[in-house]
Amino acid sequence: MKITLKRAFENDCERIHTMQKSAFQKLLDKYHDYDTNPASESLETIKSKMQQNCTEYFFIMLEEKEIGVARIVTIDNSTRRISPIFVLPEYQNKGYAQTAMKLLEKMHTDTCVWRLETIKQEEKLCYLYEKLDYIPTGEETQIKDGMTIVYYEKIFRTDNT
After folding, report:
1. Residue 132: CA count within 13 A, CB half-sphere
2. Residue pLDDT, tens place only, 20-45
3. Which domain CATH number covers 23?
4. Cβ contact 104:5 at 8 Å
5. How much of the chain exceeds pLDDT 90, in percent?
6. 3-state class of 144 per DSSP?
């Protein structure tokens, strides 16, 4: 089964919202972080992000089925941030997010630095990013007792460095 990326547009926001709520609900139930969890994000917020010039949304496709979403934010000419990336619960733990991240990196070959963040206590998520050569920056933000956000980055060397 082949994973591809398909660009999402403003008319896709409702589907993205529904998928995002489904993908992040388990973490919302576990941590009760209503201020930061994407499952709490409103449709209006997603629409607003979609309209930003620095934002691109992509559906993660398994053959012809939309199984997840990735949002890419361009910070500057050589830096991008993934926020969020998710796969629907029934498709998790099958390597699809890993493949999607590799495709995003190949799609944006001008990017020297990729950034993302996740919940430090979610070992599977940290393992996924570290397996893809993302390195903790050392920066952390405690959201609440038992929940800390850890920041990662992946640096690609150019021929000039």
Report:
1. 23
2. 999 999 999 999 999 999 999 999 99
3. 3.40.630.30
4. yes
5. 96
6. strand
